[in-house]
């Protein structure tokens, strides 16, 4: 990333902002209570047989057209960025190009990722268990006036799946199941998979695909065109200071939308400056984590502000254990580490007093193991003395009574730039404390920043790392394979289990929900038994105080409750400004 733009004087920011003011399918079901209990017959299982029409959000009040939405973010793409969401799928890139593009399908923003609905595809069906057929809308044009066709979608998919020579395409692995993409006519697209892929639609809906107009064949060497899409707002330029203004696309295919005349982007690194702009009413939306102390002061000063906590549906982990090093290649030792952790103290470190939460490797998606099952696990035992005794017995069985040594690595605390780093550091200390309490010897090593910690983890130069990492940005069990399959790119523990590999492969081929869910549950149970990577206790049923976004009371239709489709979250086609509420606002 380039050095982020620094606002040297708040009056200058005020001047800039004041000037800116004047101008189908239930794809992811809610699981049943136990791994073996199928969903009741009256609840339809998710299929890929019938599409859902394009969304038409209905605000609680009548939407009003006009106005500009002023959005502040903390980061901007690098100086040499090509502004290509396929090449740089980062939050900074999403803020810049998210309003420009459309996808093939999308997650319904009103269902927190539980339904897949149409976008450029008017409808779709399955010709067989490996062939998806999409009908492309006939009323859609790119911002350059060119009509969107099936060949454009094909070109965009192939640009990710079979990238040009000098492109990296970080999400290419998500397209690995696709065998072929064909466009038999102008408005028909077929995707053929190598084997049945139950997660293909969720992957396509997750923001991994930004449909671009085709060029004269895929270039041998990638060139950097100006971003051109068919989304709700038009790209008109992006300044080196991280500012941009996007006018509405008058021919957007969702008639009457977007409601806004403009979407305006401001890159403001300094947290205090962003908070002041929000408090003073000069910014409409502030994206990026806001520390709990900032949220508390804002609530006191501006009780009318709206705070958003995103539910992240990705699968991932908080702690990873290096299974290539002895004695951590022994599952008994890894289990002892987890039992030794003081969960109640971890809740205190998180700043919450919620009830027990044992993290599922299915993340927060509806595919995750239910808490009723997780509560049966050894690490859910709230009697700490019993847990410590069991951990000591495990170490004794492994021949390590009083002989276990470990280093717990984490990132240095940086409350302003990494609000969660204090929690990570507290967790690392608790893990070390637990190891010491069961007769081992552990210390904590705080590394300078996320990059240094990542380097240690990727090179397997660690014992235990507090390394919160999501594995995949769409709510489907296929994401588990990216972290747990033998040799997978994000298998940071270097863990290998042939039976787990079999379960992950079989669930990916199983299109029927009722048959797929038990396989997903079995895979998650096996992952939990490995203790190679796991979630730490965290608040879920109560408010921790941290916010992922904040918005003014006059901003209507803005949703940040689900982070599974980042490009969709950045489109803002459903957002509108209430002129009455805004007109009544008196600047503090």
Strand order of the largest sheet: 8-9-1-10-17-11
Overall body shape: globular
Indicate the radius of gyration in whole angstroms: 24 Å
Number of strands: 19
Q: What structural class should be given to the helix and strand makeup?
A: alpha+beta
| Oligomer kind | single chain
Q: Which stretches of 5+ consecutive residues score pLDDT under 50?
A: 1-60, 218-224, 563-568
| Overall mean confidence score, pLDDT | 81
Question: What is the overall number of helices?
Answer: 17
Question: How big a fraction of the residues is strand?
Answer: 15-25%
User: How far from one another are the termini?
Assistant: 35 Å
Proportion of residues in helical segments:
25-40%
Query: How can the largest sheet be summarized?
Result: 6 strands, mixed
């Amino acid at each position: 990333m380039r050095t982020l733009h620094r606002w040297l004087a708040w009056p200058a920011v005020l001047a800039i902002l004041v000037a800116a003011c004047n101008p189908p399918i239930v794809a992811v079901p809610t699981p049943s209570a136990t791994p073996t209990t199928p969903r009741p017959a009256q609840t339809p299982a998710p299929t890929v047989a019938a599409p859902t029409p394009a969304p038409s959000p209905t605000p609680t009040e009548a939407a009003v057209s006009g106005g500009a939405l002023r959005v502040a973010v903390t980061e901007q793409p690098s100086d040499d960025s090509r502004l290509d969401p396929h090449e740089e799928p980062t939050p900074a890139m999403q803020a810049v190009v998210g309003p420009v593009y459309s996808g093939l399908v999308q997650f319904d923003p009103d269902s927190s990722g539980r339904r897949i609905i149409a976008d450029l595809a008017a409808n779709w069906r399955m010709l067989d268990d490996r062939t998806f057929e999409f009908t492309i809308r006939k009323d859609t044009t790119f911002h350059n006036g060119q009509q969107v066709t099936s060949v454009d979608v094909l070109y965009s998919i192939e640009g990710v799946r079979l990238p040009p020579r000098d492109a990296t395409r970080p999400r290419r692995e998500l397209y690995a199941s696709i065998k072929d993409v064909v466009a038999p006519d102008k408005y028909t697209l077929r995707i053929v998979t190598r084997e049945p892929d139950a997660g293909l639609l969720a992957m396509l809906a997750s923001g991994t695909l930004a449909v671009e107009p085709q060029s004269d064949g895929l270039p041998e060497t990638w060139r950097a065109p100006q971003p051109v899409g068919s989304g709700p707002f038009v790209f008109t330029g992006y300044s080196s200071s991280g500012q941009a203004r996007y006018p509405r696309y008058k021919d957007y295919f969702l008639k009457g939308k977007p409601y806004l005349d403009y979407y305006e982007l401001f890159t403001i690194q300094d947290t205090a400056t962003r908070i002041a702009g929000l408090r003073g009413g000069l910014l409409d939306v502030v994206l990026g984590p806001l520390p709990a102390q900032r949220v508390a002061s804002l609530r006191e000063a501006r009780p009318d502000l709206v705070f958003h906590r995103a539910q992240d549906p990705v699968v991932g982990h908080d702690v990873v254990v290096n299974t290539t090093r002895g004695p951590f290649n022994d599952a008994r030792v890894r289990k002892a580490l987890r039992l030794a952790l003081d969960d109640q103290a971890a809740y205190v470190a998180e700043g919450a007093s919620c009830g027990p939460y044992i993290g599922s490797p299915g993340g927060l998606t509806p595919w995750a193991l239910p808490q009723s099952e997780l509560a049966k696990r050894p690490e859910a035992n709230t009697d700490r003395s019993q847990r410590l005794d069991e951990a000591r017995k495990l170490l004794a069985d492994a021949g390590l009574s009083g002989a276990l040594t470990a280093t717990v690595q984490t990132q240095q605390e940086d409350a302003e730039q990494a609000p969660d780093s204090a929690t990570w550091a507290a967790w690392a200390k608790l893990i070390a404390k637990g190891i010491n309490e069961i007769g081992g010897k552990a210390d904590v090593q705080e590394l300078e920043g996320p990059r240094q910690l990542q380097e240690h983890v990727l090179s397997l130069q660690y014992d235990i790392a507090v390394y919160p990492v999501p594995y995949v940005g769409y709510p489907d069990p296929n994401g588990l394979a990216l972290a747990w399959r033998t040799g997978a790119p994000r298998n940071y523990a270097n863990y290998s289990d042939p039976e787990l590999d079999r379960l992950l492969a079989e669930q990916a081929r199983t299109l029927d929900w009722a048959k797929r869910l038990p396989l997903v549950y079995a895979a998650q149970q096996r992952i939990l038994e490995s203790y190679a990577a796991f979630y730490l206790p965290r608040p879920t049923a109560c408010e921790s105080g941290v916010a992922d976004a904040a918005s003014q009371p006059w901003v209507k239709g803005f949703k940040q409750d689900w982070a599974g489709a980042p490009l969709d979250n950045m489109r803002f086609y459903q957002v509108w400004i209430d002129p009455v509420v805004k007109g009544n606002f008196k600047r503090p």
